[in-house]
């Protein structure tokens, strides 16, 4: 029988702006994690970095100068590398200052902003999204840390979401990537030195589902992926699903009650040493008439797992980064 786990409510922001579009949770150590409020409302032009403490169940929020797609902690305490609007930059939560690192994302098209991203060493792979969610014009990028090069890998995505990089041995790297409307998790060979992607293949076909794949993370052994599904339709539960990367089989499901628009998963070791799954959900685009049927939309959830260790969550190294003059 397929294991199905019901996630528990972890945090329901009392601020409506923080419930609009939570995404991108990332472990910080000591039972703490960060997450981003991508946009603080349907017409808002800014978002936030948030830091949550599992032990005290308290959240701290730091407003950004724009809408972030992702944020990762760096080797400097309190400083995050952030994809915000159409720039990569460093944000210091203490001084509330923004320092641009790379600009020009999607400079030849309009109405896109940076969305999800991941890091590998001192490199960042990230994508953008068409704000109308319909035109194949959003980019997929590599920021190469050693020389500061910003390289566009693709220019035909619509909403670039979950992604991760796996070392396949012998120096070979694979990029797993989701362009949400395609309902597929694809796998490429990634050549960081050459700045190229080759050999695109479908790793998991999800086109039979009503919901749309959004954020993802890998299991600790990197043999499976955990994907959150954004369901724009009325539903009693949202779903986050674990699939084998070897054969595509569904292995387990986590349910989020009264919140069907699920955005991102993250595995984390909590303050008691147990490995938990944190799941973000969103209010975005939900009609007012449906809010009463989904009272926990925009909440963060937490669930049990049977993992004994959590995946590594490295800090992004910023020593020696090349900043624009």
Structure characterization notes:
The protein has a 5-stranded mixed beta sheet, with no helix packed on it. It has a 4-stranded antiparallel beta sheet with strand order 2-25-24-23, with no helix packed on it. The termini are far apart. It has 2 helices and 25 strands. The chain has one domain (4-304): 6 Propeller (Neuraminidase), CATH 2.120.10. A hairpin with a 4-residue loop joins β9 and β10 (97-102). It has helices at residues 16-19, 288-291; strands spanning 4-6, 8-11, 22-29, 32-37, 48-53, 58-63, 68-73, 79-84, 87-92, 97-102, 112-120, 123-130, 138-144, 149-157, 160-169, 172-179, 184-191, 196-205, 212-218, 224-230, 237-244, 250-257, 262-269, 275-281, 300-304. With 325 residues, the protein is mainly beta.
Contiguous low-pLDDT stretches (5 residues minimum) are none
Number of helices: 2
Could you give the order of the helices and strands?
Answer: EEHEEEEEEEEEEEEEEEEEEEEEEHE
Mean of residue pLDDT values: 96
* End-to-end C-alpha gap: 59 Å
Annotated CATH topology = Neuraminidase
- CATH top level is Mainly Beta
Quaternary organization:
single chain
> Would you identify the CATH H-level superfamily?
TolB, C-terminal domain
Class computed from helices, strands and strand pairing: mainly beta
Q: How large a portion of the residues is in β-strands, by DSSP E?
A: over 45%
Short description:
With 325 residues, this protein is mostly beta strands. It has helices at 16-19, 288-291, and strands at residues 4-6, 8-11, 22-29, 32-37, 48-53, 58-63, 68-73, 79-84, 87-92, 97-102, 112-120, 123-130, 138-144, 149-157, 160-169, 172-179, 184-191, 196-205, 212-218, 224-230, 237-244, 250-257, 262-269, 275-281, 300-304.
């Amino acid at each position: 029988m397929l294991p199905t786990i019901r996630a528990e409510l972890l945090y329901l922001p009392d601020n409506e702006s923080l419930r609009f579009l939570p995404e991108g949770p990332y472990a910080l150590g000591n039972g703490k994690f960060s997450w981003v409020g991508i946009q603080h409302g349907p017409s808002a032009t800014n978002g936030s970095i948030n830091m949550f403490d599992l032990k005290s169940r308290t959240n701290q929020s730091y407003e950004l100068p724009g809408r972030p797609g992702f944020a990762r902690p760096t080797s400097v305490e309190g400083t995050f590398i952030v994809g915000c609007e159409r720039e990569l930059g460093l944000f210091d939560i203490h001084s509330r200052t923004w320092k641009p690192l790379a600009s020009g994302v999607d400079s030849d098209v309009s109405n896109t902003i940076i969305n999800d991203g991941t890091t590998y060493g001192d490199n960042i792979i990230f994508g953008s999204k068409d704000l109308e969610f319909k035109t194949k014009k959003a980019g997929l990028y590599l920021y190469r840390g050693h020389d500061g090069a910003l390289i566009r890998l693709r220019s035909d995505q619509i909403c670039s979401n979950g992604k991760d990089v796996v070392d396949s041995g012998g120096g070979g790297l694979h990029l797993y990537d989701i362009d949400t409307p395609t309902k597929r998790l694809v796998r490429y060979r990634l050549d960081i030195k050459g700045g190229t992607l080759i050999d695109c293949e479908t790793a998991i076909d999800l086109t039979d589902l009503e919901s749309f794949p959004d954020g993802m993370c890998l299991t600790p052994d990197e043999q499976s992926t955990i994907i959150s599904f954004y369901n724009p339709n009325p539903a009693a539960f949202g779903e986050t699903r674990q699939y084998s990367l070897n054969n595509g089989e569904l292995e387990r499901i986590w349910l989020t009650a009264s919140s069907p628009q699920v955005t991102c998963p993250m595995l984390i070791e909590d303050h008691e040493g147990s490995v938990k799954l944190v799941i973000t959900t969103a209010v975005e685009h939900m009609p007012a008439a449906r809010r009463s049927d989904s009272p926990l939309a925009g909440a963060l959830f937490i669930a049990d797992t049977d993992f004994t260790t959590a995946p590594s969550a490295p800090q992004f190294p910023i020593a020696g980064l090349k900043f624009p003059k």
